[in-house]
Amino acid sequence: MEIFIDTANIEDIKEAISWGVIDGCTTNPKIVSRENAPFEKRMKKILELVDGPVSIEVTTNDTEEMVKEAEEYNTWAPNVVIKIPMTVNGLKAVNILSKKGIRTNVTAAMSMKQAVLAAKAGATYVSLFWGRIEDMGYDAEKVVAESVDVFAIHGFKTRIIIGSLRQVSHINRAIRVGAHILTIPPAVLKQMAWNPRTESTIDEFLEFWAGYKKAQKGKKSA
């Protein structure tokens, strides 16, 4: 299993990389627009920082325009992955791009059948959106588990990314059902590292150590 960071914020990316747990990065137009930074400059900086794949999303639903954008983005760095929407036009673009050797990430998939179509079209990755699946009243855990099983049964090389992870419980469940990759927002990633019992235990140990050091210092001065 791999972990990607789902952000276009440079400081958040640097911090996550320093943990030694980040294998890649995903962005989308909404995430990038929040940064209020020049698009190309920001993407190239992220591509420079992240050793693994970095997903950059097209900003059109027209097949020809998707391909044009993808070809441009693909020249920016070797680790570029083009995010393509899960639509019929998107599948057409993925088919074209896969034949050109350009890696793709079919995004906003909400069902196993959509994930299968993405794999068949030649996608490198397909992103299932956990939180948004649950927003519709469906069982995201079941959708992801079925997708993972079907991909294994049929030998699809496409890797499944789980996005729209809004809380740690989503992450725990996605890991349990065998998700290939989790793309996690910085705030939720930080929650993964924290536990109140861990914090109180560490504080307890440090408190006892401080008492021990004080006692030892007293013995030396006696």
Folded structure, characterized:
- With 222 residues, the chain is an alpha/beta fold.
- It has a single domain (2-195), classed as TIM Barrel (Alpha-Beta Barrel).
- 56% of the residues lie in helices and 17% in strands.
- It has eleven helices and eight strands.
- The chain has an eight-stranded parallel β-barrel, surrounded by seven helices.
- Strand 3 (54-57), helix 4 and strand 4 (80-85) form a beta-alpha-beta unit.
- The chain is elongated, with a radius of gyration of 21 Å.
Which key terms come to mind for this protein?
single chain; 222 residues; alpha/beta; TIM Barrel; 8-stranded parallel β-barrel; 11 helices
Number of helices: 11
Structural class: alpha/beta
Largest sheet: 8 strands, parallel, barrel
Q: Which spans of ≥5 residues are poorly predicted at pLDDT below 50?
A: none
Q: Let me know the CATH homologous superfamily.
A: Aldolase class I
Gross geometry:
elongated
Number of strands: 8
Q: Average pLDDT across residues?
A: 97
Q: Please tell me the total number of domains.
A: 1
Order of helices and strands: EHEHHEHEHEHEHHEHEHH
Please give the radius of gyration in angstroms: 21 Å
Q: Tell me the name of the CATH class.
A: Alpha Beta
Residue share in helix? 55-70%
Distance between the termini: 56 Å
Tell me the β content.
Answer: 15-25%
Task: Give me the secondary-structure topology.
Layout: E1 2-6, H1 10-18, E2 24-26, H2 29-35, H3 39-49, E3 54-57, H4 63-73, E4 80-85, H5 88-99, E5 104-109, H6 112-121, E6 125-129, H7 130-135, H8 140-154, E7 159-163, H9 168-176, E8 181-184, H10 186-193, H11 196-221
